[in-house]
Structure formats: structure tokens, C-alpha cells
Amino acid sequence: QVQLVESGGGLVQSGGSLRLSCAASGSIFKIRTMAWYRQVAGEQRELVANVASGGTTNYADSVKGRFTISRDNSKNTVYLQMSSLKPEDTAVYYCNAEVYTSLVLYSDYWGQGTQVTVSS
């Protein structure tokens, strides 16, 4: 009933920029927190940044000052603007959303993941 579609990943050189987008669609009553995670093969998925429905943001220390998360509630879309990219930012990036599909219940939904590769 809910689908997250990501776009914007790709290959960039160190110091470059990318903007990721994730649009949610389906039976959406309300979206609470939206977030970006990333995962390197063999490692745990880690939170990169999240943004609450009212706009409050949080960032991992490793990306603070370089990445900016934002959302457009009218489009049910979350963005991740990434600048000053480093090779250690290379990972599969996943969109996540806490979506209410009724007045009382919500579930976490995940995008398919998009590869970000930063070359040196």
C-alpha cells in the first residue's frame, strides 16, 4: 500500500555533490519521521539523517555540516543534499519513512536503495 521510490544516486568524485530524492506514495494517512540510512556490505545499516514531520532534523556526526535533509510534505518527498563527498560516504543509501495508514497504526517502509559511489 505504500511505496518509496528513490532517485539521484550515482558516481561522483571526492569533493563533489549529489542530491537524493525519495517520494512516498500509496495509502498514506500521515508520515511521521522520514530518514536516510546507508549500508556498506557486511556492516550494519546506519542512520545518516532524519527529519520529523514538523521539520526538526538530526544528523550523524560523520555527515554533519556536509549533508542536508529536507522534506516537502505536499509531495511526500524527502531529499538528501550531499556535498563535499568523501570516499567513505560510498554506500547504498536507503530511504525510510514511518507512515500512518490509519489513525492508530504505523509501519516503517523502506526504499529499494540507491548506490552512491565516491571516487578518489
Describe the structure.
With 120 residues, this protein is an all-beta fold. Helix content is 0%, strand content 59%. It is built from no helices and eleven strands. The strands form two sheets. Strands 2, 4, 5, 6, 9, 10 and 11 form a seven-stranded mixed β-sheet that branches. A four-stranded antiparallel β-sheet has the order 1-3-8-7, with no helix packed on it. The N and C termini lie far apart (41 Å). The model has no long low-confidence stretch (mean pLDDT 97).
Ordered list of secondary-structure elements with their pairings:
Blueprint: E1 2-7, E2 10-13, E3 18-26, E4 30-39, E5 46-51, E6 57-59, E7 67-72, E8 77-82, E9 91-100, E10 106-110, E11 114-119
Parallel strand pairs: 2-11
Antiparallel strand pairs: 1-3, 3-8, 4-5, 4-9, 5-6, 7-8, 9-10, 9-11
Observed structural traits:
single chain; 120 residues; mainly beta; four-stranded antiparallel β-sheet
